[in-house]
């Protein structure tokens, strides 16, 4: 396990998930949050919603029914740990979770979950205004209102540091 020891230019995601499905992700040293026995957490490049994170399964499985009891239990514990850290860091009003697997050309259907904080008030962090829900947007899936585009790595680094204070 890497246990937070990161070196520049290392394909961290490839080391943690040897099938290579997430090896093409850029700037992994910035986005990597924490490694666990069966899973690892990384920030999403798209930070339209502040704190948006991906929970990656290390072993290559393409359907939730393939998960072992141990993987399921650890996933739940990680979610609770991450949720608590986000509450302390940014106080989201709710969390959306999604496991879609639609971009098979990128990750070959490898299981991962999108954890998306939602805010019902304006949110500013590190001088950047992030997306928040209006009353109309509260009813929509995050993917229908998410702002596409990569958040600058300097801002993602600050987001990461804030989350890691509590994770």
Question: What is shown here, in short?
Answer:
By secondary structure, this protein is an alpha+beta fold.
What does this entry look like structurally?
The protein is of the alpha+beta class. The chain has a 5-stranded antiparallel beta sheet with strand order 1-2-3-5-4. Mean pLDDT is 85; it is low at 1-9. The protein has helices at residues 12-16, 28-31, 69-89, 104-107, 142-145, 153-164; strands at 32-35, 39-43, 53-57, 94-98, 112-118, 123-125, 128-130. Strand 1 and strand 2 (39-43) form a beta hairpin. The protein is built from 6 helices and 7 strands.
- Share of residues in strands: 15-25%
Compute the number of helices.
6
Low-confidence blocks of residues: 1-9
The average pLDDT score comes to 85
- The strands making up the biggest β-sheet line up spatially as 1-2-3-5-4
CATH class: Alpha Beta
How is the biggest beta sheet arranged? 5 strands, antiparallel
CATH hierarchy: architecture: 2-Layer Sandwich
CATH superfamily: HIT-like
Report the end-to-end length measured between terminal Cα atoms: 17 Å
CATH fold-level name: HIT family, subunit A
Structural category: alpha+beta
Whole-number radius of gyration?
15 Å
Shape: globular
Give helix % range.
25-40%
Whole-number tally of structural domains: 1
Number of strands: 7
Order of helices and strands: HHEEEHEHEEEHH
């Amino acid at each position: 396990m890497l246990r937070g020891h990161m070196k520049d230019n290392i394909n961290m995601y490839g080391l943690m998930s040897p099938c290579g499905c997430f090896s093409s992700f850029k700037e992994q040293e910035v986005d990597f949050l924490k490694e666990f026995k069966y899973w690892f957490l990384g920030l999403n490049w798209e930070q339209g919603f502040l704190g948006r994170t991906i929970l990656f399964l290390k072993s290559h499985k393409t359907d939730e029914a393939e998960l072992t009891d141990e993987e399921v239990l650890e996933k739940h514990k990680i979610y609770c740990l991450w949720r608590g850290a986000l509450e302390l860091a940014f106080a989201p009003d709710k969390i959306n979770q999604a496991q879609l697997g639609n971009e098979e050309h990128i990750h070959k259907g490898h299981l991962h979950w999108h954890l998306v904080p939602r805010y019902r008030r304006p949110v500013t962090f590190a001088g950047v205004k992030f997306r928040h829900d209006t009353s109309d947007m509260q009813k929509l899936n995050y993917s229908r209102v998410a702002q596409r585009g990569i958040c600058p790595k300097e801002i993602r680094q600050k987001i990461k540091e804030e989350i890691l204070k509590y994770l």
